[in-house]
Structures are given as structure tokens and as C-alpha cells.
Amino acid sequence: MLWGGRFKKELHPRALKYSSSLSIDIELILEDIEGSKAHAQMLAKIKIISQAEEKELLEGLTQVENDWNDGKWKPDPEKFEDIHSAIESRLFELIGETAGKLHTGRSRNDQIAVDLKLWVRKKTETLQELIKNLQLTLVEISSENLETIIPGYTHLQRAQPVSLAFHFMAYVEMLERDLLRLQFLKNSLNQSPLGSGALAGSTLPLDRDFTSSKLGFESPSQNAMDSISDRDFVLDMLNTCVIGMMHLSRLSEELILWSTKEWNFIKFNDEVSTGSSLMPQKKNPDLAELIRGRTGRVYGNYISFASVMKGLPLSYNRDMQEDKEPLFSSAKIYSESLETMKLILCNINIYKNRFNNELSTDSVLATDLADWLVLQGIPFRDAHEVVGNIVKTLEEEGKNFMDLNIDVLKKFSPFFNDEALKYLELTSSLQRKKTKGSPNPKFVKEQIEYWRKKLRH
Amino acid sequence: MLWGGRFKKELHPRALKYSSSLSIDIELILEDIEGSKAHAQMLAKIKIISQAEEKELLEGLTQVENDWNDGKWKPDPEKFEDIHSAIESRLFELIGETAGKLHTGRSRNDQIAVDLKLWVRKKTETLQELIKNLQLTLVEISSENLETIIPGYTHLQRAQPVSLAFHFMAYVEMLERDLLRLQFLKNSLNQSPLGSGALAGSTLPLDRDFTSSKLGFESPSQNAMDSISDRDFVLDMLNTCVIGMMHLSRLSEELILWSTKEWNFIKFNDEVSTGSSLMPQKKNPDLAELIRGRTGRVYGNYISFASVMKGLPLSYNRDMQEDKEPLFSSAKIYSESLETMKLILCNINIYKNRFNNELSTDSVLATDLADWLVLQGIPFRDAHEVVGNIVKTLEEEGKNFMDLNIDVLKKFSPFFNDEALKYLELTSSLQRKKTKGSPNPKFVKEQIEYWRKKLRH
Amino acid sequence: MLWGGRFKKELHPRALKYSSSLSIDIELILEDIEGSKAHAQMLAKIKIISQAEEKELLEGLTQVENDWNDGKWKPDPEKFEDIHSAIESRLFELIGETAGKLHTGRSRNDQIAVDLKLWVRKKTETLQELIKNLQLTLVEISSENLETIIPGYTHLQRAQPVSLAFHFMAYVEMLERDLLRLQFLKNSLNQSPLGSGALAGSTLPLDRDFTSSKLGFESPSQNAMDSISDRDFVLDMLNTCVIGMMHLSRLSEELILWSTKEWNFIKFNDEVSTGSSLMPQKKNPDLAELIRGRTGRVYGNYISFASVMKGLPLSYNRDMQEDKEPLFSSAKIYSESLETMKLILCNINIYKNRFNNELSTDSVLATDLADWLVLQGIPFRDAHEVVGNIVKTLEEEGKNFMDLNIDVLKKFSPFFNDEALKYLELTSSLQRKKTKGSPNPKFVKEQIEYWRKKLRH
Amino acid sequence: MLWGGRFKKELHPRALKYSSSLSIDIELILEDIEGSKAHAQMLAKIKIISQAEEKELLEGLTQVENDWNDGKWKPDPEKFEDIHSAIESRLFELIGETAGKLHTGRSRNDQIAVDLKLWVRKKTETLQELIKNLQLTLVEISSENLETIIPGYTHLQRAQPVSLAFHFMAYVEMLERDLLRLQFLKNSLNQSPLGSGALAGSTLPLDRDFTSSKLGFESPSQNAMDSISDRDFVLDMLNTCVIGMMHLSRLSEELILWSTKEWNFIKFNDEVSTGSSLMPQKKNPDLAELIRGRTGRVYGNYISFASVMKGLPLSYNRDMQEDKEPLFSSAKIYSESLETMKLILCNINIYKNRFNNELSTDSVLATDLADWLVLQGIPFRDAHEVVGNIVKTLEEEGKNFMDLNIDVLKKFSPFFNDEALKYLELTSSLQRKKTKGSPNPKFVKEQIEYWRKKLRH
Fold first, then answer.
1. Phi first, then psi: what are they for B284, rounded to 5°?
2. Which residues of C form the catalytic set?
3. Cβ–Cβ under 8 Å, residues B227 and C171
4. Is C298 left (phi over 0), alpha (psi -120 to 50) or beta?
5. Can B155 be counted among the known catalytic residues?
6. Alpha-helix residue ranges (DSSP H) falling in A313-437
7. Which of A455, A457, C15, D78 is the most buried (most CB within 10 A)?
């Protein structure tokens, strides 16, 4: 035990069980060892320990790491409060009394802060890689679907024709924002808490610059009390997971819709589908559903930890131990979901011509027709009214846009002429778009080139 | 695999990993076997299987249960989608082909619904027991502290004197509401989903009344589609955990405050305290902090699952698999926290006279003095003003209520007489309370008797 | 001001602005007056005030109420802390000094607790009425759609044929649980907080039984401190709103899906649709989208208030003022959404035959076919495999269930005979269901009768 | 109405009431007009409208703005769906038919996206100013309290002596992170959605670069569909409010604790305190409690909107209307709370010597004593044990650190000598700290200088 001196009785077993975090914070074992090594080297540098002791400590710590990696050692959650205690105890077994010098000038408060920051930093990098992979997948599918015309929806009602490429490239933009948010988070992890002690630094001449630099930080933190009380980066990570998963949940919803019999636009391969234990014909988009569902979990994790931190007086309170489960859970769900989404996208069949006929009759070009009227000098609000009347009348007569000809059009507005009819052709409709960022294949292709280059560099 | 027929390729290993719930829903193993036994007996009753087959199935299921309890069998999460698949597969190993008859007329959709309801029902009973234990602990401590005078607070400012008994009995009331909420939940679990199939019942003549009664439900559910889509009881359980933990978090906060040097009202025994790895003198109220912190986790779990269910079309969607982790997590935290709170309360030393002197000088009897003026016929608003002026003046003069005498009082209001001075005596102040539900020891004692009798019967 | 006596300076205007709740708690004006009247009558009964004063107070309070109802008086949020202060101040204007007697033996702490309980009680009744109205609407639409065959979905994939009646009756069951939850809540509001004072009752002989009974409670609360600290009923109400809105969000999602071009199953009337400012042809299901969206708001309200209460020491803390905005917001959203959903359902056109042809070819009867094999003695797991193979083969050959005949079937299993073919007929498929709670029109009709009777009594 | 053409019937009044957002999005009136002006200028530039029409539109829009500012015009929420409709309708009244040209090539979808981005951008700037003001207040109070010794706490137990300056400077660090998070958010608002149309751009040659630059964006957005579906910046703002308020809630909790009778460290001025309607002596820290409480509200707002966005298919859905209430509510609470916290801090009296005597006897220097032993070559773990024993023994004997002398010390370890006693002096304890970021007044003073310079430049 790391704190026995003043106590006469041991912690009640039920109390240890309730309070031990080892089964969770074992996740931090490598970061904890990395931090301890830097600390040991620093203690030698300032001559609090000898070079021989430094060597012992470093070798001992390496041994702990190897034993863990090789499965030779696994600490028992019933015996230790946390990963720090477990490692120190193991170190005693391996190298004896010198182990007792490692904790000099260090508290578990600054130790856990540095562990967590190292862990989050590493995770931001992994997530950025996974995001890029998914972006690249989307870019590649897009490049094959520049002219796959599908309805663009608002309110889930068909609105205007777009291409699947255009639709998927929207997700590339979203993912890029997720990546930048991770970059902001990573940059904000630039101060080392090590050397902050329990909350007030130390009377020992600890070289905080040394450990900071050793562990890849820009500088030591400026205020010890803030340094060990700060979990902002955890909340920022949880927020990053919320927004990232929200994006994936939207794509999942669409894949689920598209794979229904009603939409009938894509089909999942067997490798990413499951069946029913009762209904022999079923083939279900479970993976997309799970991504959508786990988004809810990630939402809850954010609230879990935000609630923990509310109204806590400075500096460290044991409540803060509850940062780990939400953090690890959200990061795991997010990274696995990014991988899984890529797996799904690589396993769908796209019925590229699914919407061609239907869209021709579907009045999705109504806006273009109104725009054409505007070009003839009609105020837009009037043009909108005219085309709205056309739609209403066709509907009443059981007809559709394909039934329009110049005579019919002229009944609604004398300004119509033959040119207007061209605006009702689906196939050239994308090409008629004039604005940057529109589904005009010219613009989408430029985007694809831009992203492909950026992602592959 | 429970659904292979129509598939040509197996699920991708990464897809299985992402989708398997076995490591979580193993928690339901006993309920799943209980449900399967009832189903097997029903199949025999309606002669879909023979009596010999029924016997085989029941013995096989008992074997699975025993092997699990004895640690002889543990299903591999990398191989199975869920607990249902794992058990069916094990049954095949044990009894061969007959195992294939168990799933007749049953879907995993109604199976999981019945498993979860059985699990929640059992859990409501456990929680009710734990709540009663904690109530009893509070009642007993209260009975020893009927005259332990402490400040009652509003806004964390001393407001009026109360007793510790009165204060703790407030928690007994809160806990009773938690218990009633659990009772409502338990009562609402009265309909059996079994026999609802995937969503639409069955063409087989399943006897739903039989399984319903066998499993302790009042009746089969009335609508199969609702029955397999319904997770209201999970949200109600999560809400119950939120409110219950909120109560425990308030008591935790108070125990933490009371154990500070500043309050100095209670001391935790060593068995429920921990120390610091750096600071040798520290003794921390970790358990109370953890209860307060884990309250945040339980909040997050509620949102996790509420988010999962939002906007899901009927009937079953795989998203709903994410009901289990929040449910199991919250129920575990809540039950362990109830036990831990009892452990803490049995391990505190109370400094019963801590506040006696301080409260005499603390103007906490100002309200009583104003009430006395009211009894002389002064409108309360004026009486409040008079006593407010006394407090302000004393404060300015660096004096307190002990410095008041009849001459001083008369300067503030001519109505004061010697009787008023009695209203400034702390020791008799509780006895002067006239209203039911007040800290008058007479009333508190009655409450204690009432609860003691109720809890022990 | 209700508390000026001991203060030398007034509250800073910015502080008043930040802290005033009047613009929100004005919602409680009628309940506050009702509580004050009961309190005044009680003060007269115990002779703290005279009968003449009682009359003055009651008439004054009635005047305040009338002036408010008539729009003659509206308190200024810049001047008063809360509704209690505003009313007391108005009373002074109307009846002079006697107003100062109303607050005798009462604190804003017990006053607001009683106001809120009265408000919530009233709201539970309103909500129950609205729920019943919506249930009745669903029952009536169901009665006209007993044989409107639609696909039942799991994972949003077509699973088995059901009727629209069966589908809508699932919601009647959900709504009934919402109603029972409200009933539990209403029953739990049975104790009057009035007479609890600030936290510790009173030295005045207040007759709590009198006010309790006057205000329609069963009894006074048992512990004054709990009574003014308790907001469990607010959280229970917020949870009720969460689950209720979650149900409505599911129905909204379905209505949105059904009204897409892809589903093409229902059409909204103009009265409940909106258009696009840009796209002339659009007709959007905005109301259903808003119900789904506002469900998110109600989720947030739950967390808002649960977070407020976490870790608050007893008894009243000003944080608790933040109970009102979430409570009023959720109750308003919920009640308006219930009304709006009814409005929507009364304004949809149902294309009753939409799915008839498609479902015949859609292998949604695969389960029934497997069940038939079971009746011939085949283990279900094998039957499932056989039918799975049929589905796979048909799909490979570009065929469907309509292409099956006895010769084809026999290739998959020798047990098939002519009777099996009957199990492939869509029109009689619902009638073949044997289980209670299934979509067999016989059972659904019984449910409809049951609910109609219950709701109309 | 902006979309009447194809409709035969008007929206049901209850439907309009349920769906109108005008009472909320009136907040965006200035941004909406700003966006419309840029759009009008662009339409003239590309010659869709004439210069005369441009002038009419611009003057009309200015008139609307002036009328609003002067209180001459206020749109009726019962009549209009939203702020866009209200302004367009007003414009018709003011300038007639030309108003109908403003909406050319623009949808409410890109319009609201640009409005919201402009609003959030402005708000980030306001918040940054408020944060800097609060930082400066903290810096100034710190500069006066460099040697005000207070206990630093962990687990709310006294841990080590620090200064109030050191404690408050921790908050300056936190606030800086909040400021950087706002900066990240502001930087991420660099792409103009205007010209994205409903979701797919336009067939009109809109000059998106022109409007982008006019409105202060870096460039137009790259994908129209993403551009109108994106609300990431709203969630990022809501997260910023959560973390910022969490910080303020921690400081509030401390101010509440410090102002208790038990802590007795600070006193609030009357201007920032309120009293009790019942208890004449009360003086409550309401403002700090409200900041703490409203933190809960801000938490809920995050969940509200995250829930809204989950699983929404692209592109715009009406659910997204529910972004405004959470966004406006959180931004308002956050900015008002920053101001209020500053007001509080400027109105507290600090009892600078409150802890001097107590800390001398409180074993808060135990860590320093252990560190001293380390300097003599004792392994830290042993030194910790030795000092732990001292604490335990003193406690048993009813003594404290002031009772230690060299003879007593030597009983615990032979290494102790007279120098060790110096480590028990409170007054010089801060000066003995060697590490950067510690409460050594030398380091804290440097921090103060750094921040003062930075904040005042």
C-alpha cells in the first residue's frame, strides 16, 4: 500500500472492491511506465538517486512492461487500488528497496494526469489515421459515382437531383472537421503536469523541464494546482467522439434507408450482414445499426464525465477517478466505428441506375424551372408561385413533369419558351449547376482531386 | 450460427467483433436458461416436441447452467454473437440434434425481451432489500442522536437548529420514495413477451399463458410488435438509478463536508478511508467521493440509452442491443453504492457536541424570536424586520445573541418581555417546535418508531 | 423585499437580473395564490390572524388573481426576485399592512414546494387526457385498417406481414404505459409540504392537516427538511416526458418514412405540411420532424435538472431554482406534441393497398413456411436452414416466392406437400396466426374492442 | 407565405403554433439582415437584379433594421413561421414587389446556416472579452494575496499550504483554455454557406466568393450539401459553454464553502447576497449557487442538441430548428455567468489571516518533512512511513506538529536533526518550494506579471 503509515487498520475488503480502479486503468500501463522512466531519469539527473539506482529502476520498469506484454504478469484488481500501486508493488518484487525511491517528489495526482495526457495524445493520432482512411474510401467510391444520379433530400422528401459522389463528398468535409478538432485537442496537450506533486509542487529541486521534454511536451504546466485538477482535455475528447459519432450515425441512417426494400439503392454483402434466428429470409444491416446505436453510448459518456466534474472544489477529488471509463469507452467505440464504417462501405453494391427513371417524373427539377423564369426577369417569388401551380395541377391531373410541353407551360406563364423544356432534362441537370460547391460533376471532380492529393501525400 | 441458410459467406471477423454482445449479455445467462426451460415445457405441452425431447432439453439446459456455475464452461466472445447463440451451440454439443428444436416458434427478439424483464425484476427485489438495510441503519443512528443538535442549513448557511436524527430521517423518507419507484417498476413488469416471435407471433399454437405463468408474469403481452420493441422498463430502471444515486450523492456531499477540518463533525474509521501516496498525514473520504462521482456515470447511462431509442422505427433494431451496458452498469453502481453507504455510516464517529457552543451565539434562533413577536400580535413581516435589525446591529457591534438582554431587546421593539429571552435558549429550542414533521424530538421519535416497526416486520 | 432587515445595501441590479426567476415562475401564479389562501384560512383557524384579517387576505388574493386573469396586472421581472415577492408586494398595494401577516410561519421554501406539487398534479391530469385522446385516435384508425396489410419490419427490413391496425395498436400499448407512469407520479404527490417552514417547521401551532386537506393532499409530509429539499417528483415528471416523447419520436420517424416517395404509403394533408422557400414542388412532414426533434430537447431537460441536484447538501439551495425551466419546457413540449400527433394522424391519407403486390413476392412468409415444416416434425433449426436455402436460390435465379411450386419445393425438402403452398398466400397469412397478441385480425379486433370500451367509459 | 404555390389549404393554426420558431429566432434578426444585404449586392453584381432594385432592397432592409431597433416593428409569432418569413413579409410592405427578388437563388437552408455562423462568430468575440475581464479580476486579487496562506485541499481535506494567489491563478489557466477553445471555434467558422441553396447550389451564376468575402468569411464552403447540414459549430459552442461553466461551477462551490460559518474565510457584500423570507438572520450566497445550478442547464442543452442531430439523414431536416433554443440559452447563461462571477469577486471580503494559526498545528507540512528525509538519503517510501507514524502517534496523544521537537523526532528516525524543524515552519513553507508552477511566491509573482502584461496589452 502506498499510504499505510498513519493508518491502524486496513481498508475494508468491500471498500477496496468499491474503490479499486485497476480493472479499468490497466489500460494506462504503458503510459504509466513511460512516465515513471522519465521521472527516474530526472531524479538521477538532480542526484536524488544515484546512477546505479536509476539503472535498477529503468531495468525494473522495462521488466514490468515486458512481463505484461508477454502475459507473464497480470495484477489482481482485488489487491491493488490502481495501476500505480500495482506497478510499484511489482517493482518491489523485482528490484527490492530501490523501488521505494521512485515515488520521490511525485504524487499519484500528477502521475495520473501525465498518464492520461500521454494516452489521449496517442489516441488522437490513431483516430486521425482512421479518419483519413475513411475519407479516402469515400473519395474513391465518389470517383466512381460522379454521374450516379440520386435524389438529394431535405425533410427526407426528394428535393433536387445530386450525384452519389456529391453526397459522399459531404461526409469527407465533415470528417475533415473531426480531424481538425482532434488536431486542436492534440495541440492543447502541450504542457506536462509532472512535477506538480499532489497539488503544490515540491521542496525538492525537481527538473520539470527535463521530464516535460523527455515525454514530448512543449513545457511544464504553469500552475501545479490547475495541473492536477484539469480534465478539460478529457471532456474535449468526449466531445470530439460525440460529434464524430454523430456524423457516422447520419451516414449509418442513410445506409440503412438505402438498403431497405423501399429504397432499394444498395445491398450489403454477406460479410457485413446478419440474419434472423427465426425468419429465414432476413438479411439485416446490423453494423450500421450498431454504429447508430453506439452513438447514444458516446453521448452518455460525455454527460457522465461532465456531471462528475460539476461543482468539484479544487484540487483532486476521488470523483475524478470516474474519468477513465467514459474516456476509454468513447475512444474505443469511435475508433472501432470508424473502422467498421470503412468495412461496410467496402462491402456495398450500388444500384447506380436505381433512380434514373423515377427522378424524371418526380418534379425534382422544379427549382431549376423557377430559376429559368428568374433569368427571364420574373421575380423569384412569382416564379416559385408559377412552378408551384404547375406541380399542384399536374398532381391533380395524375400527371408528372414528363407530360409537360410548351403549350402546357404557357398556360401557367407566357414567358415560357422551348428553352425552358431543356431545364426539365434530368441527365444534363447536374451540369447546369453554376455554383461552386454544387453537384456539377466538374466541381465535384475538383474536390475529389483535391482530397485525393491531400490524403495521399 | 443461428441464421446461416441464406448466406453464402460468413460474417467478417471484424464485423463479428464489432457486433458481438456476448461479453456483456453473459450477465443474462441464468435468465436465458430459465426462459428456455419454460419454452421447452410449453412446446411439449402443445406436442410440438415429445416428452422425451422435453426431458433432453431440460437436462441439457440444466447441464449448461451447472457447467457455467462450476466454471467448467465459458463461451468465447470471439465466436458467438450473443448469449442465445452461445447457449444453443453448447446445447448441441451436449445433447445433439434435439437442441435444434428449442428455438421453435421463438425469436431472439422475444427471448431477449423476456430475459431482460426477468433480470430487471430480480434486480428490483435486490435493490429494495439494500434500500431497507440502509434505511434501518439511518434509523438506528438517528435513534442515538435525537438530541444531537446540529445546524440545519439552507444555502449551506446555518439556518435553524435541528438534530442529527431529524437530518438523517430526511434520508429515510427519500429512500422510501426510491423503494416505491422500484415497486412501480416491478409491478409494470407483469406481461410476458414470450410467444411474440420476431414481431408478429406465430402460426404455431404456442401456449403463451403457460409460459407467462411459468415465469411468474400475470399475463402474456397484448401486442407482439410492442412487446419486442418495448424497453420502457429499462429507461424506468435507469431513471430509478439516477434518482436513487442523486440521493446518495447528497448524503455523500454532506459526509465529505462534515469530515473536513472546517466542519470537524465526523471522523471516518480507517476501514473506510484512504491515504495519499505523497502526503503522509492525509486521510481521505474516498468512498463518499466515489459514490458522488459514480452518480455522474449513472446520469450518463440514462442518456446513453434514451438516445439509442429516440426515433427508432418499430420493431426491433440492432441499436437496441445497446440497452445492456447502461442497464447493467447503473444497476451495479446503484446496488454497490447502497452497500457502500451503509458501510460508511457504520464507520463514522460523530462528535455529538460539536455545535453546541457555536450555535448559541449564531443567531440561528432569529426565526423563533420573530415567531414570538407574531404571537404578541405583530405582523410577521414587521417582526422579521425587527429581528433583522437586531442581527445587523449585533454584527456591527461585534456581538451576538448571547449578548442580548431585555433592555437591549426593548430598544428594537417595545413588545419584547422576559419570556422572549427563553426563545434564545438553544437547548430547549427543538422542544419548542409545534409542527408535525419538525425536529421536535417528540415527533422525530414517533417517526423512528414508525420506520423501525415497518422495516423490521 | 421579503428580507431587508439585516441588509445595509440593496442587491446590485445586475445581481437581481441574474437571479430573478419571475419571468419563469409566473407560470405558478394560480398555484401560489391557491396555496396562500389555504395558508391564510389556517392562520385564522389557529387564531394567529383574526377572521376579519382572513377575509381581507382572501379577498386581496382573489383580486390579484382576477387582475392577472384580466390582464390588469403584470409584475415586472426587473423589480421582483420571484412570483412570491411579486404577489406579496401586490397584496400590500391592495390591502395594506395585513398583507404582512400572510407569510407568518411560512417560508418561500415550503411555499414553492407546494406550488410545484400542485402544478405537477394538475399537469399529470391534463397529460392523461391528451394521451387518452391520442389512444382513441389510434384505435379508430386501427378499426378501419384491420386488413390493411403492411410489412412488419425488424432492422427496417421487411420481416413478416402485419396489419396497420396491429402496428398502430402497438402504440396504444406504449401510451398506456405512459399513462400509468403519470398515475404513479400523481399518486406520489400525496404529501403536503406546507408548514415545513424553511426546513425545520415552526414554533407556531400551524395546523398542517388543515392545509394539507384543503389543498387536496392525503397528509402533511413527515419530515420538514426532506419536504423542502425534495424535487424527486420533478425528475419523475421529466422522465415521464422523456419516455413519452421517445414513443412519439418513433411514430414520427415512421410517418416520415411512410410519406417518402420511396415508401409512398401515406400522404399528409396540406394543413399539416409545409413547403420550401426555394423548391416549388416540396411538401414536407415538418410537424413529425419537429416532434422527433423536440424529443431531444426533452432529453436535455432531464439532464439539466438531474445535474442541478447532484451532490447538493440539504436542505434548500438556490441551485434548485433551476427546476422550473426544464420542467415547464418538457411539460409544454410533451402536451403540445401529443396534440400535434393527434392532428397529424387525423390528416393523413393511407394508401391501403400499397404493399399487397410487393409482399407476395417478398419472401416475408418464409417464417411461416419454416413453421409448417416444424409441424411435419422437422427440427426448427433444420427447417430454418431449408427455407434459407430456398431464399438464397431464388435470389440467385432472379426469382421470388411466387415462382415456387410443389416440384421446386420438394428439391429442398421431401417433406413439402401441397398444403405447404397455402402458407405462401399473403391474403390469408394474418388469419393463420395462432398466438394471442399476434396480428391475426381476430385478436386485433378484440384489442380494439377492449380499448374502445376502456377509453370511452 | 414563402411556399404557397402548390398548396390548396393553409397550415392549420395549431400546426403553425407548434412549428413557428419566430419567438426564438428573432434573436438572429441583425444577422439575417446582414446576410440579405450581401446577397442583394451579389445579385446586382451578377445582374440578376438591377442597380435600382439593389438600392431598393438595401434601403428596405435598413428600414426593417431601424424599425426593429426603434421598437416600431415587431413581428407576430402567430403569423410567421420564422424570422426569414417575417422580414420578407415586412419588406413587401415597405418596398412592394421588388422584395420578391431577394430570395432568388437562396433557400432558407443556406440563409439560416449563414445567420447562425455570423451569430456564433460574434458571440465568440463577446465571450472572449468577458473571459479576459474575469482573468484580469483574478490576477488583481491574486497580486494582493501572494502571501495569504490557505490550505490547499485534495479530497477536500487539508493537504499542503498554498496561497490564495496560487489558488486563484489556477483559474486563470483554466479560463485561458476556455479562451483558446473559443478561438478554435471562431477559426473553424471560416467558410460561407451562402450560395449553397437548398442543398445543391444553383443553376444561377451566383458569385459565392463575393458574398463570402462581404460577410467576412475566408472562402465559400466546398460542398453545398454538407454546408446546409452542418451544425458542428453549434455543438462545439455548446461544449465550450459546458467546459466554461464547469470551471465557474468549481469556483462557485469554493466561494460557497468559504463563506460558510465553518470555513469563515470570505464574506459577501450585501450587494451580492440575498436574505430569507422567513429567517431574519440569513445572508445567502445565491449568485454563486445560481452559477453552479445553471451549469446543469448548460449540460442539458448540449444533450438536447446532440440528441437532435443523431441519425438524421442528409441534408436539412426540420428537427434542426431545435438548434436555436439550446444555443441561445447556453450562450446567454455562459456570458451572464462570466459577468456575474466578476461581480461576485469584486464584492467579497477576504479574511487573510484566517488559517495562519490552524495550519501550524495541522500537519499540512508532513510532506515537506518526508522530503527532508529524502534529502538525507532515505527512500521516499520509508520517509513517508516514518512521517505517517509521527502523525498517527501525535493524533493518539492528542498532540500536533507544534509539539514536535528534536527529541521526539529522533524516536521516529535517527536521521532527524535540527534542520528538520525548520521544515515545520508555516510562514516560510511556500518559499521552500523549488519547482516551477508551485505556490512559491516567486513563481506566482512571475505568473501574475506574465498574465497582467498579456491581458492588458
1. -115, 150
2. 155, 276
3. no
4. alpha
5. yes
6. 324-345, 356-360, 366-375, 380-396, 406-412, 418-422
7. C15
**Residue in this structure with the C-alpha cell 416523447, named with its chain if needed:** C245
Per CATH, which fold does C11-104 belong to?
Fumarase C; Chain B, domain 1 (1.10.275)
Task: Return all residues near D10 (Cβ < 8 A) that are at least 6 apart.
Answer: C270, C271, D1
Look at C290 and D318 and tell me if their CB atoms are within 8 Å: yes
3-state secondary structure of B274: strand
Radius of gyration from C-alpha coordinates of chain B: 30
On whether the CB atoms of residues B339 and B130 are closer than 8 A, the answer is: yes
Contacts of D35 in chain C (CB under 8 A): none
Task: With H, G, I as helix, E, B as strand and everything else as coil, classify residue B160.
Answer: strand
CATH number of C357-456: 1.10.40.30
pLDDT at A416 over 80: yes
E strand or H helix at C42:
helix C29-45
Determine the distance from the C-alpha atom of residue A12 to the mean position of all C-alpha atoms in its chain, rounded to a whole number: 41
What burial class does residue C293 get, using C-beta atoms within 10 Å of its C-beta: 0-12 exposed, 13-18 middle, 19+ buried?
buried
**Interface-testing mutation among A92, A186, A243, A315, with chain D (most D C-beta atoms within 10 A):** A315
Residue of D nearest to A254 (CA): D313
Which of B181, C133, D104 lies closest to A372 in space, CA to CA?
Answer: D104
Q: Which fold has domain B109-147+163-204+222-353?
A: Fumarase C; Chain A, domain 2 (1.20.200)
HSE-up (13 A, CA, CB side) for residue B175: 27
CB contact under 8 A, D262 and B259: no
Size of interface A-D (CB pairs under 8 A): 408
CA C15 to chain centre: 36
What's the half-sphere exposure (Cβ side, CA atoms, 13 Å) at B405?
Answer: 1
Torsion, CA D6, CA D9, CA D13, CA D15, rounded to 10: -50
Return the number of other C-beta atoms located less than 10 Å from residue D365's C-beta: 25
Nearest to D290 by CA among D237, D320, D322, D252: D252
Per residue of chain B (457 residues), give pLDDT as tens: 677 778 888 889 999 999 999 999 999 999 999 999 999 999 999 999 999 999 999 999 999 999 999 999 999 988 898 999 999 999 999 999 999 999 999 999 999 999 999 999 999 999 999 999 999 999 999 999 999 999 999 999 999 999 999 999 999 999 999 999 999 999 999 999 999 999 999 999 999 999 999 999 999 999 999 999 999 999 999 999 999 999 999 999 999 999 999 999 999 999 999 888 888 888 899 999 999 999 999 999 999 999 999 999 999 999 999 999 999 999 999 999 999 999 999 999 999 999 998 998 888 999 999 999 999 999 998 999 999 999 999 989 999 888 999 999 999 999 999 999 988 899 889 999 999 999 999 999 999 999 999 998 7
Using CA coordinates, name the residue in chain C closest to A387.
Answer: C280
Instruction: Tell me the nearest-neighbour CA distance from A71 into chain D, angstroms.
Output: 28
Q: Which residues of D touch B388 (CB under 8 A)?
A: 275, 280-281
- pTM exceeds cut of 0.90: yes
Q: Which of B88, B93, B81, B109 is nearest to B40 (CA)?
A: B88
Domain-wise residue ranges, chain B = 11-104, 109-147+163-204+222-353, 357-456
* B84 among known catalytic residues: no
Stretches in chain C below the pLDDT threshold 50: none
- Indicate which residue of B19, B23, B219, B276 is catalytic: B276
Q: Are D39 and D65 in contact (CB under 8 A)?
A: no
Contact at CB, A274 and B3, closer than 8 angstroms: yes
Q: Is B219 exposed, middle or buried (0-12, 13-18, 19+ CB in 10 A)?
A: middle
Give the 3-state secondary structure of residue C91.
helix
Indicate if B109-147+163-204+222-353 has the same CATH topology as B11-104. no
